[in-house]
Protein backbone atom coordinates (compact mmCIF):
# COMPACT_ATOMS: atom_id res chain seq x y z
CA UNK A 1 0.00 0.00 0.00
CA UNK A 2 1.26 3.49 -0.74
CA UNK A 3 0.11 6.99 0.09
CA UNK A 4 -1.08 8.96 -2.90
CA UNK A 5 0.21 12.15 -1.31
CA UNK A 6 1.89 13.56 1.73
CA UNK A 7 -0.60 14.72 4.39
CA UNK A 8 -1.95 18.24 4.25
CA UNK A 9 -3.29 20.45 7.02
CA UNK A 10 -6.63 22.25 7.04
CA UNK A 11 -8.46 24.66 9.32
CA UNK A 12 -6.43 24.84 12.52
CA UNK A 13 -8.52 25.74 15.54
CA UNK A 14 -7.33 26.51 19.09
CA UNK A 15 -5.46 23.35 20.12
CA UNK A 16 -6.46 21.29 17.07
CA UNK A 17 -5.94 20.87 13.33
CA UNK A 18 -7.42 18.69 10.58
CA UNK A 19 -4.98 16.29 8.86
CA UNK A 20 -5.93 14.78 5.48
CA UNK A 21 -4.21 12.34 3.15
CA UNK A 22 -5.27 10.01 0.36
CA UNK A 23 -4.74 6.32 -0.40
CA UNK A 24 -5.72 3.99 -3.21
CA UNK A 25 -7.11 1.40 -0.79
CA UNK A 26 -9.31 2.08 2.25
CA UNK A 27 -6.77 0.42 4.59
CA UNK A 28 -7.41 -1.41 7.84
CA UNK A 29 -5.66 1.15 10.05
CA UNK A 30 -5.23 4.81 9.16
CA UNK A 31 -3.87 7.17 11.77
CA UNK A 32 -1.89 10.28 12.58
CA UNK A 33 1.10 9.54 14.80
CA UNK A 34 2.30 12.23 17.22
CA UNK A 35 5.59 12.14 19.09
CA UNK A 36 9.26 13.16 19.07
CA UNK A 37 10.66 13.40 15.55
CA UNK A 38 13.38 10.80 16.15
CA UNK A 39 10.87 8.29 17.54
CA UNK A 40 8.49 8.89 14.66
CA UNK A 41 11.26 8.39 12.12
CA UNK A 42 11.79 4.82 13.35
CA UNK A 43 8.21 3.89 14.30
CA UNK A 44 6.62 0.67 13.03
CA UNK A 45 3.16 -0.85 13.55
CA UNK A 46 4.70 -2.86 16.39
CA UNK A 47 6.01 0.20 18.23
CA UNK A 48 2.93 2.42 18.15
CA UNK A 49 2.85 2.32 21.96
CA UNK A 50 5.73 4.82 21.87
CA UNK A 51 3.64 7.51 20.14
CA UNK A 52 0.19 9.05 20.32
CA UNK A 53 -2.17 7.50 17.76
CA UNK A 54 -5.11 9.51 16.38
CA UNK A 55 -7.38 7.34 14.18
CA UNK A 56 -8.58 8.72 10.85
CA UNK A 57 -12.03 8.36 9.28
CA UNK A 58 -12.01 6.85 5.79
CA UNK A 59 -14.29 7.81 2.92
CA UNK A 60 -14.14 7.16 -0.80
CA UNK A 61 -14.01 10.06 -3.25
CA UNK A 62 -16.87 8.91 -5.44
CA UNK A 63 -16.17 11.00 -8.55
CA UNK A 64 -12.45 10.31 -9.06
CA UNK A 65 -11.78 8.99 -12.57
CA UNK A 66 -9.19 8.75 -15.34
CA UNK A 67 -9.57 9.04 -19.09
CA UNK A 68 -9.16 5.88 -21.18
CA UNK A 69 -9.68 5.23 -24.90
CA UNK A 70 -13.12 3.92 -24.00
CA UNK A 71 -14.04 6.94 -21.91
CA UNK A 72 -13.58 7.93 -18.25
CA UNK A 73 -13.34 5.09 -15.73
CA UNK A 74 -13.49 5.16 -11.94
CA UNK A 75 -10.24 5.24 -10.00
CA UNK A 76 -10.27 4.24 -6.32
CA UNK A 77 -9.19 7.11 -4.11
CA UNK A 78 -9.89 7.18 -0.38
CA UNK A 79 -9.70 10.19 1.87
CA UNK A 80 -8.24 9.73 5.34
CA UNK A 81 -9.20 12.52 7.73
CA UNK A 82 -8.30 13.01 11.37
CA UNK A 83 -8.85 15.94 13.71
CA UNK A 84 -5.86 16.09 16.03
CA UNK A 85 -6.72 17.89 19.26
CA UNK A 86 -5.13 18.61 22.66
CA UNK A 87 -2.12 20.17 20.92
CA UNK A 88 0.39 22.45 22.62
CA UNK A 89 1.00 25.89 21.13
CA UNK A 90 4.42 24.89 19.81
CA UNK A 91 4.92 22.88 16.63
CA UNK A 92 4.71 19.13 17.17
CA UNK A 93 6.18 16.38 14.98
CA UNK A 94 3.82 13.99 13.24
CA UNK A 95 3.56 11.53 10.39
CA UNK A 96 0.64 9.51 9.00
CA UNK A 97 0.32 5.76 8.60
CA UNK A 98 -1.98 3.58 6.49
CA UNK A 99 -1.99 -0.23 6.77
CA UNK A 100 -3.43 -2.66 4.22
CA UNK A 101 -5.19 -5.96 5.16
CA UNK A 102 -1.99 -8.01 4.83
CA UNK A 103 -0.24 -5.83 7.37
CA UNK A 104 1.94 -3.79 4.99
CA UNK A 105 2.26 -0.24 6.35
CA UNK A 106 2.93 2.98 4.46
CA UNK A 107 4.23 6.07 6.25
CA UNK A 108 4.54 9.69 5.25
CA UNK A 109 7.63 11.73 5.96
CA UNK A 110 7.84 13.42 9.36
CA UNK A 111 6.29 16.90 9.38
CA UNK A 112 5.11 19.33 12.05
CA UNK A 113 1.68 20.60 13.04
CA UNK A 114 0.03 22.82 15.60
CA UNK A 115 -3.34 24.36 16.34
CA UNK A 116 -4.40 27.83 15.31
CA UNK A 117 -1.90 30.62 15.72
CA UNK A 118 -3.24 32.70 18.62
CA UNK A 119 -5.25 35.73 17.57
CA UNK A 120 -3.13 38.84 17.33
CA UNK A 121 0.08 36.94 16.65
CA UNK A 122 2.04 37.97 13.52
CA UNK A 123 2.02 35.41 10.70
CA UNK A 124 3.71 34.75 7.38
CA UNK A 125 1.43 33.56 4.56
CA UNK A 126 2.12 32.37 1.02
CA UNK A 127 -0.29 33.91 -1.54
CA UNK A 128 -0.76 31.84 -4.67
CA UNK A 129 -3.21 30.51 -7.26
CA UNK A 130 -3.65 28.76 -10.61
CA UNK A 131 -1.15 25.93 -10.35
CA UNK A 132 -2.91 23.65 -12.88
CA UNK A 133 0.12 21.39 -13.31
CA UNK A 134 1.95 24.27 -15.03
CA UNK A 135 5.67 23.86 -15.74
CA UNK A 136 7.07 26.36 -13.24
CA UNK A 137 5.02 25.27 -10.21
CA UNK A 138 7.70 22.99 -8.66
CA UNK A 139 10.27 25.77 -8.93
CA UNK A 140 7.82 28.32 -7.58
CA UNK A 141 7.02 26.33 -4.44
CA UNK A 142 10.57 25.17 -3.80
CA UNK A 143 11.92 28.71 -4.01
CA UNK A 144 9.06 30.09 -1.92
CA UNK A 145 9.84 27.58 0.82
CA UNK A 146 13.54 28.41 0.70
CA UNK A 147 12.84 32.14 0.88
CA UNK A 148 10.08 32.14 3.49
CA UNK A 149 11.22 29.45 5.90
CA UNK A 150 8.39 28.42 8.23
CA UNK A 151 4.98 29.51 6.98
CA UNK A 152 1.75 29.86 8.94
CA UNK A 153 -0.56 29.20 6.03
CA UNK A 154 -1.16 29.24 2.29
CA UNK A 155 -3.92 31.38 0.80
CA UNK A 156 -4.87 29.78 -2.50
CA UNK A 157 -7.10 31.84 -4.81
CA UNK A 158 -8.41 28.95 -6.91
CA UNK A 159 -7.60 26.70 -9.88
CA UNK A 160 -5.55 23.99 -8.21
CA UNK A 161 -5.71 21.52 -11.10
CA UNK A 162 -7.10 21.37 -14.63
CA UNK A 163 -9.95 18.88 -14.12
CA UNK A 164 -11.15 18.47 -10.56
CA UNK A 165 -12.42 14.88 -10.99
CA UNK A 166 -9.24 13.59 -12.69
CA UNK A 167 -7.27 11.78 -9.97
CA UNK A 168 -3.90 12.05 -11.68
CA UNK A 169 -4.18 15.85 -11.77
CA UNK A 170 -4.06 15.73 -7.98
CA UNK A 171 -1.63 12.89 -7.32
CA UNK A 172 0.53 11.43 -10.08
CA UNK A 173 0.16 13.06 -13.48
CA UNK A 174 2.62 11.86 -16.09
CA UNK A 175 4.13 15.34 -16.43
CA UNK A 176 5.41 15.13 -12.83
CA UNK A 177 3.61 18.27 -11.66
CA UNK A 178 0.40 17.02 -10.00
CA UNK A 179 -0.98 19.34 -7.32
CA UNK A 180 -0.05 17.29 -4.26
CA UNK A 181 3.22 16.15 -5.86
CA UNK A 182 4.40 19.76 -6.12
CA UNK A 183 3.02 20.70 -2.70
CA UNK A 184 4.59 17.56 -1.21
CA UNK A 185 8.12 17.84 -2.58
CA UNK A 186 7.53 14.88 -4.93
CA UNK A 187 7.36 16.73 -8.26
CA UNK A 188 9.99 16.90 -10.98
CA UNK A 189 10.69 19.70 -13.42
CA UNK A 190 14.06 20.72 -14.84
CA UNK A 191 14.98 24.20 -16.05
CA UNK A 192 18.16 26.25 -16.15
CA UNK A 193 20.22 23.21 -15.22
CA UNK A 194 18.32 22.57 -11.98
CA UNK A 195 15.65 19.98 -11.19
CA UNK A 196 12.90 21.27 -8.92
CA UNK A 197 10.74 19.00 -6.80
CA UNK A 198 8.47 21.51 -5.09
CA UNK A 199 8.25 21.50 -1.30
CA UNK A 200 6.05 19.88 1.38
CA UNK A 201 4.64 23.24 2.40
CA UNK A 202 1.04 22.27 3.19
CA UNK A 203 2.17 19.33 5.31
CA UNK A 204 3.19 21.84 7.97
CA UNK A 205 1.43 25.07 6.94
CA UNK A 206 -2.37 24.85 6.64
CA UNK A 207 -3.94 25.32 3.24
CA UNK A 208 -6.76 27.88 3.01
CA UNK A 209 -8.41 27.19 -0.37
CA UNK A 210 -10.79 29.05 -2.65
CA UNK A 211 -12.88 27.63 -5.49
CA UNK A 212 -11.76 28.56 -9.00
CA UNK A 213 -13.49 27.65 -12.24
CA UNK A 214 -11.31 24.53 -12.53
CA UNK A 215 -12.72 23.20 -9.27
CA UNK A 216 -16.14 23.00 -10.97
CA UNK A 217 -17.24 20.27 -13.41
CA UNK A 218 -20.46 19.19 -15.06
CA UNK A 219 -22.39 16.63 -13.04
CA UNK A 220 -23.57 14.81 -16.16
CA UNK A 221 -20.84 12.61 -17.76
CA UNK A 222 -19.22 13.53 -21.09
CA UNK A 223 -17.02 11.46 -23.44
CA UNK A 224 -13.85 12.81 -21.78
CA UNK A 225 -13.11 14.54 -18.50
CA UNK A 226 -11.87 17.62 -20.36
CA UNK A 227 -15.18 17.80 -22.19
CA UNK A 228 -17.09 17.37 -18.96
CA UNK A 229 -15.21 20.33 -17.49
CA UNK A 230 -16.10 22.52 -20.48
CA UNK A 231 -19.69 21.27 -20.71
CA UNK A 232 -20.99 22.67 -17.40
CA UNK A 233 -24.23 24.61 -17.78
CA UNK A 234 -26.53 26.38 -15.29
CA UNK A 235 -28.11 23.80 -13.02
CA UNK A 236 -25.70 21.06 -14.10
CA UNK A 237 -22.41 21.63 -12.35
CA UNK A 238 -20.69 20.08 -9.37
CA UNK A 239 -18.04 20.91 -6.73
CA UNK A 240 -18.40 17.76 -4.62
CA UNK A 241 -14.83 16.57 -5.23
CA UNK A 242 -13.49 19.91 -4.03
CA UNK A 243 -15.76 19.79 -0.99
CA UNK A 244 -14.63 16.26 -0.16
CA UNK A 245 -10.95 17.11 -0.44
CA UNK A 246 -11.25 20.41 1.44
CA UNK A 247 -14.25 20.04 3.77
CA UNK A 248 -12.95 22.79 6.04
CA UNK A 249 -12.74 25.74 6.56
CA UNK A 250 -16.51 26.05 6.27
CA UNK A 251 -19.33 28.39 7.21
CA UNK A 252 -22.93 27.74 8.24
CA UNK A 253 -24.33 29.28 5.06
CA UNK A 254 -21.77 28.23 2.47
CA UNK A 255 -20.05 25.15 3.86
CA UNK A 256 -16.56 25.02 2.30
CA UNK A 257 -17.71 27.19 -0.63
CA UNK A 258 -17.32 30.40 1.38
CA UNK A 259 -15.90 30.90 4.83
CA UNK A 260 -13.99 33.25 7.17
CA UNK A 261 -11.14 32.57 9.59
CA UNK A 262 -8.68 34.44 11.77
CA UNK A 263 -5.06 33.47 11.13
CA UNK A 264 -3.00 35.14 13.85
CA UNK A 265 -3.47 38.86 13.29
CA UNK A 266 -4.99 38.43 9.80
CA UNK A 267 -8.71 37.96 9.17
CA UNK A 268 -9.45 36.14 5.90
CA UNK A 269 -12.74 35.84 4.00
CA UNK A 270 -12.92 33.41 1.07
CA UNK A 271 -15.75 33.72 -1.48
CA UNK A 272 -17.04 31.50 -4.28
CA UNK A 273 -16.42 34.12 -6.95
CA UNK A 274 -15.91 32.39 -10.28
CA UNK A 275 -17.67 31.60 -13.54
CA UNK A 276 -17.50 29.07 -16.36
CA UNK A 277 -14.63 29.64 -18.76
CA UNK A 278 -15.67 29.68 -22.41
CA UNK A 279 -13.24 29.63 -25.35
CA UNK A 280 -13.54 32.00 -28.27
CA UNK A 281 -13.04 29.60 -31.14
CA UNK A 282 -15.25 29.01 -34.21
CA UNK A 283 -17.72 26.21 -33.67
CA UNK A 284 -17.72 26.43 -29.86
CA UNK A 285 -20.21 27.63 -27.31
CA UNK A 286 -18.40 30.85 -26.56
CA UNK A 287 -18.39 33.71 -24.11
CA UNK A 288 -20.16 36.10 -26.45
CA UNK A 289 -22.28 33.86 -28.68
CA UNK A 290 -23.79 30.43 -29.15
CA UNK A 291 -23.05 28.38 -32.21
CA UNK A 292 -25.28 29.71 -35.02
CA UNK A 293 -26.68 26.22 -35.63
CA UNK A 294 -27.86 26.08 -32.00
CA UNK A 295 -30.09 29.16 -32.15
CA UNK A 296 -33.29 27.11 -31.81
CA UNK A 297 -31.83 24.30 -29.68
CA UNK A 298 -31.72 25.52 -26.03
CA UNK A 299 -30.53 22.10 -24.88
CA UNK A 300 -27.24 22.78 -26.67
CA UNK A 301 -26.71 26.31 -25.36
CA UNK A 302 -23.72 27.04 -23.16
CA UNK A 303 -25.33 30.19 -21.69
CA UNK A 304 -22.20 32.30 -22.06
CA UNK A 305 -19.81 32.94 -19.22
CA UNK A 306 -22.36 32.34 -16.49
CA UNK A 307 -21.62 32.78 -12.78
CA UNK A 308 -21.85 29.67 -10.61
CA UNK A 309 -22.99 31.26 -7.34
CA UNK A 310 -24.54 34.72 -6.87
CA UNK A 311 -22.25 37.14 -5.11
CA UNK A 312 -23.94 40.52 -5.54
CA UNK A 313 -26.14 42.51 -3.20
CA UNK A 314 -29.07 40.43 -1.93
CA UNK A 315 -27.27 37.07 -2.28
CA UNK A 316 -26.37 34.77 0.64
CA UNK A 317 -22.68 35.33 -0.09
CA UNK A 318 -23.04 39.09 0.05
CA UNK A 319 -24.85 38.84 3.38
CA UNK A 320 -22.13 36.53 4.68
CA UNK A 321 -19.38 38.89 3.56
CA UNK A 322 -20.95 41.89 5.28
CA UNK A 323 -21.60 39.92 8.46
CA UNK A 324 -18.07 38.52 8.50
CA UNK A 325 -16.37 41.89 7.99
CA UNK A 326 -18.62 43.50 10.61
CA UNK A 327 -17.71 40.86 13.20
CA UNK A 328 -15.61 41.50 16.26
CA UNK A 329 -12.98 39.08 14.91
CA UNK A 330 -12.59 41.14 11.76
CA UNK A 331 -12.51 44.44 13.64
CA UNK A 332 -9.92 43.13 16.11
CA UNK A 333 -7.57 41.81 13.40
CA UNK A 334 -4.64 43.91 12.35
CA UNK A 335 -5.25 43.09 8.67
CA UNK A 336 -8.27 41.98 6.63
CA UNK A 337 -7.93 39.95 3.42
CA UNK A 338 -10.70 38.88 1.04
CA UNK A 339 -9.90 36.31 -1.64
CA UNK A 340 -11.87 34.97 -4.59
CA UNK A 341 -10.91 33.77 -8.02
CA UNK A 342 -12.19 36.37 -10.50
CA UNK A 343 -10.09 39.56 -10.97
CA UNK A 344 -12.42 42.47 -11.77
CA UNK A 345 -9.39 44.71 -11.26
CA UNK A 346 -6.73 43.16 -13.46
CA UNK A 347 -4.52 43.25 -16.52
CA UNK A 348 -5.16 39.63 -17.45
CA UNK A 349 -7.27 38.24 -20.26
CA UNK A 350 -9.95 36.94 -17.89
CA UNK A 351 -10.76 40.34 -16.36
CA UNK A 352 -13.02 40.87 -19.38
CA UNK A 353 -15.97 40.55 -19.74
CA UNK A 354 -17.48 42.07 -16.61
CA UNK A 355 -18.34 39.75 -13.72
CA UNK A 356 -22.08 39.88 -14.25
CA UNK A 357 -24.89 37.68 -15.50
CA UNK A 358 -24.86 37.39 -19.30
CA UNK A 359 -27.67 39.23 -21.06
CA UNK A 360 -29.01 36.98 -23.84
CA UNK A 361 -29.90 38.70 -27.11
CA UNK A 362 -31.70 36.56 -29.72
CA UNK A 363 -31.61 37.74 -33.32
CA UNK A 364 -32.41 36.20 -36.68
CA UNK A 365 -28.73 35.34 -37.05
CA UNK A 366 -28.22 33.65 -33.71
CA UNK A 367 -27.70 34.28 -30.01
CA UNK A 368 -25.20 36.64 -28.47
CA UNK A 369 -24.41 37.56 -24.86
CA UNK A 370 -23.69 41.01 -23.50
CA UNK A 371 -21.98 41.85 -20.19
CA UNK A 372 -22.65 45.43 -19.04
CA UNK A 373 -19.60 46.75 -17.21
CA UNK A 374 -21.85 48.79 -14.91
CA UNK A 375 -23.32 45.50 -13.69
CA UNK A 376 -20.01 44.00 -12.52
CA UNK A 377 -20.93 42.58 -9.11
CA UNK A 378 -17.42 42.91 -7.71
CA UNK A 379 -16.94 46.53 -8.73
CA UNK A 380 -20.54 47.63 -8.09
CA UNK A 381 -21.47 45.68 -4.94
CA UNK A 382 -18.39 44.21 -3.25
CA UNK A 383 -15.84 47.01 -3.63
CA UNK A 384 -17.91 49.45 -1.49
CA UNK A 385 -18.09 46.78 1.23
CA UNK A 386 -14.32 46.35 1.14
CA UNK A 387 -13.89 50.10 1.55
CA UNK A 388 -16.47 50.41 4.32
CA UNK A 389 -14.91 47.66 6.43
CA UNK A 390 -11.26 48.60 5.87
CA UNK A 391 -10.18 45.56 3.87
CA UNK A 392 -6.43 45.76 3.35
CA UNK A 393 -6.02 43.29 0.50
CA UNK A 394 -8.19 41.63 -2.16
CA UNK A 395 -6.50 38.53 -3.56
CA UNK A 396 -7.49 37.16 -6.99
CA UNK A 397 -6.19 34.70 -9.59
CA UNK A 398 -7.49 33.35 -12.92
CA UNK A 399 -5.26 35.06 -15.51
CA UNK A 400 -1.84 33.64 -14.54
CA UNK A 401 -0.29 37.09 -14.31
CA UNK A 402 1.09 39.32 -11.57
CA UNK A 403 -0.27 42.85 -11.27
CA UNK A 404 -1.47 45.00 -8.43
CA UNK A 405 -3.69 48.03 -7.89
CA UNK A 406 -4.71 50.40 -5.11
CA UNK A 407 -8.11 52.07 -5.16
CA UNK A 408 -9.11 55.48 -3.79
CA UNK A 409 -10.19 53.93 -0.48
CA UNK A 410 -6.73 52.43 0.04
CA UNK A 411 -7.71 48.84 -0.72
CA UNK A 412 -4.92 46.86 -2.39
CA UNK A 413 -5.93 44.45 -5.18
CA UNK A 414 -3.48 41.73 -6.23
CA UNK A 415 -3.63 39.41 -9.23
CA UNK A 416 -1.61 36.61 -7.74
CA UNK A 417 1.60 34.92 -8.56
CA UNK A 418 2.07 33.80 -12.11
CA UNK A 419 3.59 30.32 -12.07
CA UNK A 420 3.49 29.65 -15.80
CA UNK A 421 0.93 29.11 -18.54
CA UNK A 422 0.30 32.84 -18.56
CA UNK A 423 -2.58 34.36 -20.50
CA UNK A 424 -0.51 37.52 -20.83
CA UNK A 425 -0.86 41.10 -19.62
CA UNK A 426 -3.15 43.35 -21.63
CA UNK A 427 -1.55 46.74 -21.30
CA UNK A 428 -0.18 49.35 -23.64
CA UNK A 429 3.39 48.37 -22.70
CA UNK A 430 2.78 44.75 -23.66
CA UNK A 431 1.07 45.70 -26.90
CA UNK A 432 -1.50 42.96 -26.36
CA UNK A 433 -5.21 43.55 -26.91
CA UNK A 434 -7.98 41.41 -25.48
CA UNK A 435 -10.33 39.63 -27.86
CA UNK A 436 -13.75 41.08 -27.11
CA UNK A 437 -16.58 42.93 -28.87
CA UNK A 438 -16.29 46.62 -29.61
CA UNK A 439 -17.87 49.02 -27.15
CA UNK A 440 -17.34 50.66 -23.77
CA UNK A 441 -18.32 47.52 -21.82
CA UNK A 442 -15.20 45.71 -23.01
CA UNK A 443 -11.83 47.17 -22.06
CA UNK A 444 -9.28 45.80 -24.52
CA UNK A 445 -6.20 47.12 -22.70
CA UNK A 446 -5.72 47.94 -19.04
CA UNK A 447 -7.91 47.41 -15.98
CA UNK A 448 -11.64 47.26 -16.73
CA UNK A 449 -12.20 48.65 -13.23
CA UNK A 450 -10.45 51.86 -14.26
CA UNK A 451 -7.38 51.71 -11.99
CA UNK A 452 -3.82 52.19 -13.11
CA UNK A 453 -1.53 49.29 -12.19
CA UNK A 454 1.05 50.12 -9.54
CA UNK A 455 4.65 49.94 -10.67
CA UNK A 456 6.68 47.44 -8.60
CA UNK A 457 8.52 49.39 -5.92
CA UNK A 458 11.86 47.58 -5.80
CA UNK A 459 12.99 46.02 -9.09
CA UNK A 460 10.40 46.03 -11.87
CA UNK A 461 11.05 44.12 -15.05
CA UNK A 462 11.69 46.28 -18.09
CA UNK A 463 10.39 46.22 -21.61
CA UNK A 464 12.41 46.19 -24.87
CA UNK A 465 13.01 49.93 -24.63
CA UNK A 466 14.04 49.84 -21.00
CA UNK A 467 10.67 51.06 -19.71
CA UNK A 468 9.66 49.61 -16.30
CA UNK A 469 6.70 47.23 -16.50
CA UNK A 470 3.80 47.18 -14.00
CA UNK A 471 3.24 43.45 -14.48
CA UNK A 472 4.89 40.06 -14.80
CA UNK A 473 3.51 37.85 -17.55
CA UNK A 474 6.00 35.17 -18.53
CA UNK A 475 6.40 31.46 -19.07
CA UNK A 476 10.01 31.65 -17.87
CA UNK A 477 9.87 34.04 -14.92
CA UNK A 478 7.94 32.69 -11.96
CA UNK A 479 6.59 34.85 -9.14
CA UNK A 480 5.63 34.09 -5.57
CA UNK A 481 4.21 36.43 -2.96
CA UNK A 482 4.49 36.47 0.85
CA UNK A 483 2.36 38.38 3.35
CA UNK A 484 4.43 39.27 6.42
CA UNK A 485 2.02 40.65 8.99
CA UNK A 486 4.76 41.42 11.52
CA UNK A 487 6.19 43.96 9.11
CA UNK A 488 2.74 44.80 7.74
CA UNK A 489 3.88 44.27 4.14
CA UNK A 490 3.32 42.07 1.12
CA UNK A 491 6.47 41.13 -0.79
CA UNK A 492 6.65 39.64 -4.28
CA UNK A 493 9.68 37.77 -5.61
CA UNK A 494 10.65 36.61 -9.09
CA UNK A 495 13.01 34.01 -10.44
CA UNK A 496 14.10 33.38 -14.03
CA UNK A 497 13.83 29.63 -14.52
CA UNK A 498 15.58 29.82 -17.90
CA UNK A 499 18.79 31.42 -16.65
CA UNK A 500 18.78 30.57 -12.94
CA UNK A 501 20.53 32.97 -10.61
CA UNK A 502 19.06 34.56 -7.51
CA UNK A 503 15.52 35.07 -6.32
CA UNK A 504 14.78 38.81 -6.71
CA UNK A 505 12.52 40.85 -4.43
CA UNK A 506 10.81 43.10 -6.98
CA UNK A 507 7.84 44.58 -5.14
CA UNK A 508 6.92 45.47 -1.58
CA UNK A 509 3.92 47.41 -0.33
CA UNK A 510 2.41 48.15 3.09
CA UNK A 511 -1.02 46.81 3.99
UniProtKB/TrEMBL annotation:
GO terms for molecular function: acid phosphatase activity. It comes from the Bacteria. Keywords: Signal. SUPFAM superfamilies: Metallo-dependent phosphatases (SSF56300). Pfam families: Metallophos. The keyword Cytoplasm does not apply. Residues 126-401 form the Calcineurin-like phosphoesterase domain. The keyword Signal applies. This is Calcineurin-like phosphoesterase domain-containing protein. It comes from Catenuloplanes indicus.
